[in-house]
Predict the 3D structure of the following.
Amino acid sequence: MPGSRVFISESDLNFRRRLKDILIHSGYLIIGESSSGKHTLQMVSRLDPTLIILEHRLPGSEDLDIAEIIGGQMIAPVVLTVDARRQDVDELVRKTGVYGVLSRTLLEASILPVLETAIAGFERVTDLQKQVVELRKKLYERRLVEQAKGLLMESKGFTEEQAYRYMRHLSMDNCLPLAKIARNIVMAAQR
């Protein structure tokens, strides 16, 4: 996407220059460059790029899988650059954090679709992760409410409906979410 902040990590200076020219011409913003793995990790954590273009088997990363480290931290999508003769491309795209693969032959027509697909895929994954967190929170709160209703039914002899209405009444009177009222009931019962 034009305006996207791109970090390029590539040891071949000529390739990096050609790629940079294509990206700048297409409206991308190059926020940093590196030719070593450790330097790449340091820079991307500080610069917060939208996209990282990373050479597969980058010098200085012999014992590190840079793409997996970046992917594990969900910093940005990684697009790997590989030799055109490489046979195991399908294995590379299954790695954590890798959202695309670019051939080092740099066919200009194929670069932008790969980058756009990587950014869109990463955005979908981060949106889904946010949804999962929200759903887990709602499930936890629902379980708290159910547990609190059970405690009220046991301690006060309420029916399930009465226990719920009681908690809802407390929630409205105290201007607190129902989950917080339920948490307070459960914590009070544990004392």
